[in-house]
Fold:
Amino acid sequence: MRKIALIMMSALFMSAYSQNLNKQVFDILNLDYPGLEKVREAHLRGDDTAAAKALLSYYRNRSSIILPDVDMNNITISKGDQKIADEALEHKFFVHKGYQPSYFYGDDIDWTYWPVKDNELRWQLHRLKWFTPLGKAYRTSRDEKYALAWIDQFRDWVKKNPCPMNASKRKTIASPGNPDSDAVVDIDENARFAWRPLEVSERINSQPEQFLLFLPSKNFTPEFLSEFLCNFHLHGEYIMKNFSEQGNHLLFEAQRLLQAGIFFPEFKNSAEWRSKGIEILNKEITVQVYDDGMQFELDPHYHLAAINIFFNALQVADMNGYRNEFPQSYIGAIEKMITITMNMSFADYSIPMFSDNRRTEKRVLIRNYSEWSKVFPNNQQILHFATEGKKGEKPDYTSGAFKTSGFYMLRSGWDMKSIAMVLKAGPPAFWHNQPDNGTFDLFINGRSFFFDSGCYVYSGDDEVQKQRDWFRQTMVHNTLTLDNKNLEKTDSKCLLWKTDGKNDILVVENPSYEGLTHRRSVFFVDKTYFVIVDEAIGNATGKVGIHFQMGENKIVEVPEENKVYTAYSDNNNVVLRTFGTKPIIFEKEEGWVSYEYRQKQKREAFSFNINKTDDTTVRFVTVIMPVKNAEKAPTVFAEITHAENGELTLEVTIEKEKRVLTYSLSTDETK
Structure:
């Protein structure tokens, strides 16, 4: 019944509104633009009704503008999008995939409704992302109820979410959670969510496709066109005056404003939008991308997003004749960004969930590589990853160091039978980065054994922030802490990187706490097993612990031997054993992993701890060895025989075979 009532309300709303033409549209358009001759002629003779009809006809026949990934000749809709569209008819809006089923926002839509005090839920409400599924449902069915719903909800949003510069201070609105009680809502507080520049840019990014999807509808009237264009123009001008100061938000806003200027070249200000977007992107690719290709937030998720921002901007400019506005250095920087992504990826296309990263589907990455390969056709490595190795060439090296950003890959090969460690130890970074310097993920024969805990949620009220803070703790990463506290400083330096094709040595150092520096040395011995030496250097005292996060099951702990091993039945396991310069205390810890937003599951976690009582350096030696059957694994012993003045020597015994591992920071060549 609610659905029928909504459709009837929409139809009545349309008929009541059909005579309201926003004549401002003729002020913001360049009526001398080729193709608008009939619009200009009718407007000059004072017949704006005819001018609006001519404008609608122009857009319905326009075919000169090309958008990447938008093909109006091959529109399909998935079952998921169909469900989103049908729920939207009842004002159940798909706002965030972490909050399902969708919430009901009231018969009279309450755009301030905040069922869970997670900021993302409220910000993303104003991205209006369900409008695109509504458009696909309309184009595949030609059922006008979807067009009516979109037009009704679009107008409702515009009416109830005025641009802050024009908003009155307060209004009264009923909440669907308590429809009998009116609540006074501060417009300024609501505008903080509705008109945050990132959300504004998200709307102008998605609205061109929505515009094309609904354009054939008989309910897409000349009058509604005038309202749509005026609102879109307001969004573009708002971004021009309210860019974010830095970070990925600024990139999103610039790229989307560029695209808006290209898609609606009829606006008087479209060239200015395009030029401003390109100007910012050309500048920010030198600011936000390190010389080794990593985006400066040190978050694989936002690194990938940044690649696609820069890439999509180049792609849409290229398709519409503006590629020459990007210098060759811009294109080269994108290629570097793709290279570090290839190096961060394991053979199954998974990427460590460092910082605020989450699990990325393999098909998504392959699709990205395929698109990138079109722009970089001579890069055989990109082609290799785009075709899962069927074409192109794999990199001619295994291990790699990206020292500026602090990402290191110790690798035996590139296939599923390979061993690969990715370690993160970089400079200070921004909001999405976590205090995790020294952490690592280890991939062996198709399985990740020490995957990062993830991020779970972003921000919100005290309860949501508490949930976020748990996943950000240093102690839930594979690194060293003092008294289980978060790192006070994240500014790691690479002291040594040495690889000869058979063995890798990495030494990184972080000034983690006042009075305590963490030096982590990693030996990848014969490209078969790892020896990690952790040193807590300085006069700070307290409990020094090295933490490890492992799988969700099949983990066996042997505390009396400071040993942990996996017991998978597929002959793909690891044994971890730690030795110390002082007695070690084994502690089992709380463990969780979050692969997707607001989803988490239990996992095994533990630490090895030494009580540091003076300025004597505390040292741990950890051996991580791939084995088939851990219960039948060879015995392992390791001890440090020399450690001073930047020199380190240790002996590792596997069964009866003794191996001496050593380096000198003063004489070894850093490669």
In short: Confidence is low (pLDDT under 50) at residues 1-17, 166-186. The first strand starts at residue 92 and ends at 93. The first helix runs from residue 2 to 17. Residues 439 and 478 are 5 Å apart (CA to CA).
